[in-house]
Every structure is written in structure tokens, then in C-alpha cells.
Design brief:
CATH class of the largest domain: Mainly Beta
CATH superfamily of the largest domain: YVTN repeat-like/Quinoprotein amine dehydrogenase
Shape: elongated
Mean pLDDT: 89
Distance between the termini: 84 Å
Helix content: under 10%
Number of strands: 53
Radius of gyration: 41 Å
Low-confidence stretches: 11-25
Length: about 650
């Protein structure tokens, strides 16, 4: 039996470990102290705290096999003659290690056995006709399982069993079971993907197909002596890439452990049913206690010394000693660490400095509340906070829901009633449960409730549907239960598609404004007055008026009437030369009249049209096939060309015509 199939990977972002939906913690988890083993990657741990791992060479990609005894630093394992590199894959409680060596003829399964002078290594025999092999597991009887080393150097089919008494046998030839073994337990049950094979009864069980219908078949990673299996699978979906971890128990079936991302992977299973897994961080599920993020279980002194967990997964033995990857921000050490239980993790201490402050509503923060703040007392042990309140003089407390993130030490209680005095208390909650309550803080909510009443506003003049021209006098009044803080006068220009502010007044319940309509095209316009109070409540009054300027009205006398001024974006009350240019352009052998117009991009309701004729009296035409060629047109510019050459007619004329949409 082993504790994992693949080495632990390091990550730099540690996410919260999601809890199994069907499991609830029933007690505090252990607290862990930490020993630094050294650089490299851990592969397996046994029940006497022997670790095996490897260290890679970034230049030649070869691996050096490593072993650590009882928390000591790494030492290098020997390689067989002719090997250029190697790595362990599993070990048993007696310290026998199996792994793989890179040989000139391909990969070979190897075994390290402890002795008085360290470890001796030997190369395991091959099946007849095979050229490469890969050892994957070993139990406490010394039985070893493995498979052919495929073209990529990984185990692939043609599974085998090696014992000291019987040597190596083919599982397919001997038992008719073609498999790629992952592990073997002390009862001689071999795990291969979704199947198990019992050597004693020579029976195959396909346990991986009995998982949830929403998931793909579950592939086993580790099997323990109780027949429990740690398995990995994925959601049966064509769009969501979600990996999941399950634990199988005979008679009970598959228990969901975790699975919220594509990075979720089970890494270890001990004989008591505890699980190690990775999900953008290292997590452990402790039988009878529940799931926890491994980094949250560090002893407070260990965390205070600068240690954090960086492994994406972990290995746990029967004594709940854990191996994974970690780093220290103070010493810059990074690599394999051994975590040893050191009693139960304590709950966090009570927060200090709880302060409750009344907050009256205002325009920038339009709510009435009591604002609360406190100080972290035990941040390394704290996962979240719980806040409670009661009406002063009463005995029962009620929870106050906290707004995420739950680690915030600030909260606004906006559910208070006016002029009521409240008591508050807060406590920190950690992996070991809630800590003690803080000292009580008391505050009285503001006496004035939140003002939600809108002002009233009325346009006195002009009347709705009135006909107006020239300078228009606008008058409005407003009232509010607290007070009017602002009156704003405006009108809606349908040609420009925007609101034009005319005037405003502060802290006044009445106001007047003059509106100069002489530069506006004749049309119906909306006059609007908005009244608002200090808290931000507002109300709008509106009347429609008909601006009636005489046809061809040109108040600035520049020869361009108001609608033309609007279309070209020129000031209607100032004489200007306009933005229309006519030129004579050479096109091949002929010359053509061309019109170049700079538009007002805000005049969204205006139609621009180029027209041509032989006579100023007409007829004028804008036909795009026979009369006018549009060379360019967008919201800011129009370039049009007369299709008829100047030489083909005695006289040619081109003009711009503007109108409005209905």
C-alpha cells in the first residue's frame, strides 16, 4: 500500500478548500508543527515517517532519487550501474522503496532495500519479451506491482506482480487480467483504474463504474487495507472542465471529497480513511472531523515563523503525519516539509477593540446605520467572524449577517431602527471552531429615519403645449418635507438628442430662467425642472412647448437659417462662413462639381442630402445612380460628387439640403 501515485506540485496561489457536501466536522483538527526536509518533490511517506522523493535537473531533465528518515534532511539514493537517473514511486513500512531507473535500453523497475550501510539497489526482472518496466506500488509483505513502461516512459498495460518467492508473473497470462496496476494493499488486492483484483479469490471488481451518473467513471489512485479507494474523475460535461475526488468504502460506495476546478486531484489515502488532495492548494479530509485547508492547520508559532503551505496536494500516513511542499518568507527556504501533529488546533482568541458608531444618512451615503470595527486578535487561526446584536436591556442575541469577504473587520449594520440602543459582540471562527466573544460595544441608532420622500415640483410658466418664440421666461416652484437643496432647469433638444442645462439654484424653493429660442429650428421641445433634496431624493416636472420661428429665420443674418446652423454645428446667434465647401475636381478627362460638408455629430435627427441641377430653378436631383455619387459619409462628414461632367452641360449646380426625420 502506498500513499500517492504522482508527486506533489508546487503552486503560488492557495485557494480555499471546498468541503464535502455530505460530511460535517465533529471535532477540532490537529495542529501541525513543521520540519524542513529540503528542495525537491515528495513522492511517498510511510508510517515511520520515511519520505521518498526526487530532485530534477533543469538542464538534462534527469531526476535524482531522495530519501529522508524521520524528518532528517534528504540523502541521495544509489542508482544501479548504467543508470543516468531515477526516482522512487512507493515504499512500505519496512523502508523498502520501489521506483524507476533511466537505463540506456529504456526505463526499468528498481528496488531499494535498507541495510546497515544505507540502501542497496537492484533492478527487477522483466516479463518475457518486454524491454522496459515501471514499478508503481509495494505492500508491507514486499509484493511489488507495476506495468510496461510505454513509449512516453509511463506505465501502460501488461501489468505484473513481483514477489521474492515467485519472482515476476504476468497478471494477464496468470489470471487473464490485462491491467495497469496503481497500487497493492497488504491483503493482496491490486488496484488498476476502475477495477480491483483480489489475488486470494482471483476476482475482479469494477468499482469505478458505480459512481454518480453525473460523472465519468472514477479511476482509482490508492487502495488501503480496509479496501477503501481514493479516486479521481471529471464531470460528465462537454463545456465544464471540473475534476473531482471521491473515496470509496466497501458497502457504502463513493463519498464526494472535493471538486470545484480542473485542478482538483486526490493524492493520498491512509488506513484510517483520511484523504489528502489538491485543489489550488493542499487539503486534508480527516475521518470523523471533516475537510480542512492544510495551511490553516499550522501551529500558530509555525505560521508566525513565516511558514506557509505551497503544495497542490499532500501525503498523509496512519499517524496523520503529512508531507507536502512549503516555503518560509523569512529564511527563503522552499521545498518539501514534514508536518507532525502537536495536539489539537486551538480556536482563535477574541477580537479586541470593538467600536460601534452611529451613522446618519447623508447625500453621499444615503443610509442610516451603526458602523462597527474591530481588531484581529489571532489572524493566523481565523477563517471568518460572527457578529451578534441585541436591543439593550434584553437577554437574547441575534446574528447579524456579514457581507463578504468574511475576513473583513468592518461592517455596516443598516437594519437598525431609529433611536434604538443596541449591544454588539463579535467572535472569530477558525478551523477548530469559534473562539470567545469580544467585549460588548453599545451605540444608539440615529433618531431621524432615512428620508425617502421625494420633493414636489411644479412648472408655473410656460404652460404645457404653449406656443413660444424668442426669449422664453421659465418659472418653477418646489417643496420638500425636509428642504429643497437644488432646482435644475433644462430642455430636451430633439435634433441633438441631448439635454441642455439652462440654469440651477441651490437651497431655493423657487427659481426663474430665460431661454433664448431664437437660434432653434421650429419644433416641439420639452422643458424640464428637477428638484432634489439633501439625501438625493428627486422629482421631475416637464412641459412641452412649440417653438415657432418664422420659416427661413436667420437671427444672426449670415444667410444660413437655424436648421442649417444646427446641421453644420455653427453658432446660430453669430455670423459665420459655414463649413460647406464646393470645388471643381478633375476626374479622368472631365471635371465634376464636388461638395464637402463638415457635419455636426450631435445633430442626430437631421437629414443631409446633396442635390444637383442644370438650373437653380430646378429640377434638383439626388438620385445616387444618375445624379450624385457619395464618396464618403459618416456622422462627421459628407463628400458628394456630381455624376455629370461640367463640360457636358452649359451650367451645373450643386447644393446641400437638410431636413428632419418625421
Amino acid at each position: 500500500m502506498k500513499t500517492m501515485h504522482a508527486s506533489i506540485a508546487a503552486i503560488t496561489v492557495i485557494a480555499a478548500i471546498s468541503a464535502p457536501s455530505s460530511v460535517r466536522a465533529s471535532g477540532p483538527p490537529p495542529s501541525y508543527t513543521l520540519q524542513f526536509i529540503g528542495e525537491g518533490t515528495v513522492v511517498a511517506i510511510n508510517n515511520v515517517n520515511t519520505l521518498v522523493g526526487m530532485r530534477g535537473n533543469t538542464t538534462n531533465l534527469l531526476k535524482t532519487p531522495l530519501v529522508s528518515l524521520g524528518g532528517a534532511s534528504w540523502t541521495t539514493l544509489p542508482l544501479p550501474a548504467g543508470a543516468t537517473g531515477g526516482f522512487p514511486t512507493a515504499l512500505n513500512d519496512s523502508g523498502t522503496i520501489v521506483g524507476v531507473a533511466d537505463m540506456s535500453g529504456g526505463r526499468r523497475a528498481i528496488r531499494w532495500q535498507p541495510g546497515g550501510n544505507g540502501y542497496a539497489v537492484d533492478v527487477l526482472p522483466l516479463l518475457p519479451g518486454e524491454m522496459a518496466s515501471y514499478a508503481t506500488g509495494i505492500n508491507n509483505s514486499g509484493d511489488i506491482v507495476g506495468a510496461r513502461a510505454g513509449i512516453l516512459g509511463t506505465p501502460y498495460g501488461f501489468g505484473w506482480l513481483h514477489t521474492d518467492a515467485g519472482g515476476i508473473i504476468s497478471l494477464d497470462t496468470q489470471y487473464g487480467w490485462f491491467a495497469t496496476p496503481n497500487d497493492i494493499n497488504d491483503h493482496g488486492v491490486i488496484l488498476s483504474g476502475t477495477q480491483t483484483f483480489d489475488l486470494a479469490t482471483q476476482t475482479v471488481s469494477d468499482v469505478g463504474l458505480s459512481g454518480p451518473a453525473s460523472d465519468n467513471p472514477i479511476g482509482g489512485v490508492v487502495i488501503n487495507n480496509a479496501g477503501q479507494i481514493l479516486g479521481n474523475t471529471t464531470l460528465r460535461s462537454s463545456s465544464l472542465n471540473i475534476a473531482k475526488v471521491y473515496r470509496y468504502t466497501p458497502g457504502a460506495g463513493w463519498l464526494f471529497i472535493s471538486g470545484t476546478s480542473k485542478y482538483t486531484a486526490g493524492t493520498s489515502l491512509n488506513n484510517t480513511g483520511d484523504v489528502g488532495w489538491g485543489e489550488l492548494g493542499a487539503g486534508i479530509y480527516i475521518e470523523g472531523i471533516g475537510p480542512h485547508a492544510l495551511g490553516s492547520l499550522l501551529d500558530p508559532a509555525t505560521a508566525a515563523a513565516g511558514w506557509s503551505i505551497t503544495g497542490n496536494g499532500c501525503l498523509i500516513n496512519d499517524h496523520r503525519v503529512v508531507a507536502t511542499l512549503g516555503k518560509n518568507t523569512g529564511t527563503a527556504q522552499t521545498g518539501v516539509v514534514l508536518l507532525t501533529p502537536a495536539g489539537q488546533l486551538p480556536p482563535p482568541a477574541a477580537p479586541t477593540g470593538l467600536v460601534a458608531t452611529p451613522h446618519p444618512a447623508n447625500s453621499s451615503e444615503p443610509y442610516m446605520s451603526i458602523n462597527l470595527s474591530w481588531t484581529h486578535a489571532d489572524p493566523s487561526l481565523t477563517r471568518t467572524y460572527e457578529l451578534e446584536r441585541r436591543v439593550q436591556g434584553q437577554t437574547s442575541w441575534s446574528p447579524v449577517p456579514l457581507v463578504p469577504p468574511y475576513m473583513s473587520i468592518l461592517h455596516r449594520d443598516t437594519t437598525v431602527a431609529p433611536a434604538i440602543t443596541y449591544d454588539y459582540r463579535v467572535r472569530a471562527v477558525g478551523a477548530a471552531g469559534p473562539g470567545p466573544w469580544s467585549a460588548i460595544a453599545t451605540a444608539t441608532a440615529p433618531a431621524e429615519p432615512l428620508d425617502t420622500t421625494r420633493p414636489e415640483v411644479f412648472i408655473v410658466s410656460p404652460a404645457n403645449s404653449a406656443n413660444v418664440s424668442g426669449i422664453v421666461f421659465i418659472s418653477a416652484t418646489a417643496s420638500d418635507n425636509v428642504g429643497v437643496s437644488n432646482l435644475e432647469f433644462s430642455y430636451w433638444n430633439p435634433y441633438m438628442g441631448r439635454e441642455i442645462i439652462l440654469a440651477s439654484a441651490s437651497d431655493s424653493e423657487s427659481h426663474t430662467a430665460n431661454w433664448d429660442t431664437r437660434g432653434l429650428p421650429s419644433a416641439t421641445y420639452a422643458i424640464r425642472v428637477i428638484a432634489s433634496d439633501a439625501i438625493g431624493n428627486w422629482q421631475r416636472a416637464e412641459v412641452s412647448v412649440n417653438v415657432s420661428n418664422a420659416p427661413g429665420d436667420d437671427p444672426d443674418g449670415d444667410g444660413q437659417e437655424n436648421l442649417i446652423e444646427l446641421a453644420l454645428g455653427t453658432p446660430p446667434m453669430q455670423s459665420n462662413p459655414g463649413t460647406v465647401q464646393t470645388t471643381l475636381e478633375q476626374v479622368g478627362e472631365a471635371r465634376h462639381l464636388q461638395l464637402d460638408v463638415m457635419k455636426n455629430p450631435l445633430a442626430g435627427n437631421v437629414i443631409f442630402r446633396a442635390e444637383v441641377a442644370d438650373n437653380p430653378a430646378g429640377p434638383w436631383s439626388s438620385d445616387p445612380l444618375t445624379a450624385v455619387e457619395i464618396l464618403h459619409e459618416d456622422t462627421e462628414r459628407l463628400i458628394a460628387r456630381d455624376r455629370t461632367p461640367v463640360a457636358a452641360a452649359a451650367r451645373r449646380f450643386i447644393r446641400l439640403r437638410v431636413g428632419t426625420y418625421p
